[in-house]
Amino acid sequence: MAASTAPNSDPSMKSDDHSSTDLLRQDVLGSRRFSNYFFASIVAIGGIGFLLSSLSIYFHVNLIPFSRIAGVDFIPQGAAMGFYGVAASLLSLYLWLAIVWDIGGGYNEFDKRSGEASIVRQGFPGKNRQIEVTYSLSDTQAVKVVLQDGLNTKRCLYLRVKGRADIPLTRVGQPLPISALENQGAELARFLEVPLEGL
User: CA of 100: how far to CAs of 66, 108, 134, in Å?
Assistant: First the structure.
């Protein structure tokens, strides 16, 4: 059964242009999401603002235009602003590094010619910078869709492989739209010629 080469509706996990009846490659979006760029920028601006306010109070020099620091004591207000500024700046640094390193990004590749599947993800620099799981396509038993709504929303695709724990195929973090998840699961199940579970 041939795999569909039509693009998926969600950019976080899409079929590569070189997909064919023997090869299916799905790119997985990692930390380079718009929401992460936006949140990292807001946290950075807030952190720098608090730091400059704290320094302005300490040195009695207005480092932020259009702000008033007269009558504000360094202890406790200025020190508290400095603490929040340092914390926000460190969080922003972590977020920007995660974006630069594209943590969680990678691809899922299924190759009928070699009979193998490769699940590749990017990690933090070091020993586990690139995490790769390879297994035989003949061990694939099913594609599993998990839909869980509520406070802890969970919408994921898993690959059920003989002798292994279920392997996650979708991104971590922001849940995918249900329609995109269903389309991706159906496409992969058709390509691998295995059942689609969970729907």
Answer: 34, 21, 26
Q: Provide the 8-state DSSP code for 114.
A: T
The model's pLDDT over 116-156, given as tens digits with 9 standing for 90+, comes to 999 999 999 988 899 999 999 999 999 999 888 777 778 89
Whether residue 40 lies inside any domain: the answer is: yes
- DSSP strand pairing (130-136 vs 116-122): antiparallel
For 117, phi then psi, to 5°, come to: -125, 140
pTM, 2 dp: 0.77
Q: Provide the domain limits for residue 39.
A: 35-101
Burial of residue 47, with CB atoms counted within 10 A of its CB: 0-12 exposed, 13-18 middle, 19 or more buried: buried
Where does a domain end: 46, 80, 101? 101
Contacts for 62 with CB less than 8 Å, ≥ 6 apart: 56, 68, 69
Q: Which residues contact 10 (CB under 8 A, 6 or more apart)?
A: 176, 177, 180, 184
Q: Name the band, by pLDDT with cuts 50, 70 and 90, for residue 1.
A: very low
H or E segment to which residue 161 belongs: strand 154-161
Confidence of residue 11 (pLDDT cuts 50, 70, 90): very low
pLDDT of residue 60 exceeding 90: no
Locus of tokens 């795999």: 3
**Burial class for 194, CB neighbours closer than 10 Å (0-12, 13-18, 19+):** middle
